[in-house]
Amino acid sequence: MTNRDGSPIWYELMTEAPDAAQAFYAPVLGWNFGAPPEGLEHDYRVFTAADGEGVGGVMPMPGIPPTWAVYFGVADVDAMATRVTELGGSLHKGPQDIPGVGRFAFVADPQGATFYLMRGDSDAESTAFAPPKAGHCSWNELVTSDQQAARDFYGKLFGWTKAGAMPMGALGEYSFIGHGGETIGAMMTNPEPGAAAFWNFAFTVPDIDRAKAAVEAGGGRLRHGPVELPGDQGDWLIQIDDPQGAKLMLTGKRRGGGA
């Protein structure tokens, strides 16, 4: 893919209940689920937004807590995997090829947050991260034990910069991630001392209140919100758990003036 190194290009839900996940997320986010590209395992489910653009996939993964993951695009998976370990991170899987799809590695930063490195076989640019578009990712949030160490790691790996911050009281700063002139997310200090670092994501919905109702009707749990986000865009956010317990955030407008 032609996205610059460090761009989020794909999202993946690892869960032991792919059928239940598909039934839940289709009405919540308007995703359409289809068969995988040739080369992927048969039961990998690719989901697309209403505009027909690919956003991510659901991978059956028994025996582990359900979780969301991100693929960051790179030009050279092998060199970047080596660089991850040189910078204090760890290599969990790969590098290896998926025929007809691309080359990937599964790695972790020094604080333990896991992510994928990916070089897709296609030269098309990924639009999985496209904040204004319904069904696409709108925010990439790193919850970590050491923001400064994380900034140093990702800055050296991908060239990310600190693009401003806002105070979070006892938790310190909520530090925005700059990448190629774009703000792609933020870093925050984990409120649970000693807990593992992780990546958290938000996806755009057309109507936050309708999405909240779909979450609850589908057996998900509302953890927080709706809360209005800073700025003048009129966006709201909710934090949810899906029925299997995977954490996710949704962002969108308040069309019907819900309470």
UniProtKB/TrEMBL annotation:
Outline the extent of the VOC domain: 7-120, 133-253
This chain's protein is named VOC domain-containing protein
Segments forming a coiled coil: none
Against Gene3D superfamilies, the record matches this protein to: 2,3-Dihydroxybiphenyl 1,2-Dioxygenase, domain 1 (3.10.180.10)
InterPro entries given in the database record: Anthracycline_SecMetBiosynth, Glyas_Bleomycin-R_OHBP_Dase, Glyas_Fos-R_dOase_dom, VOC_core
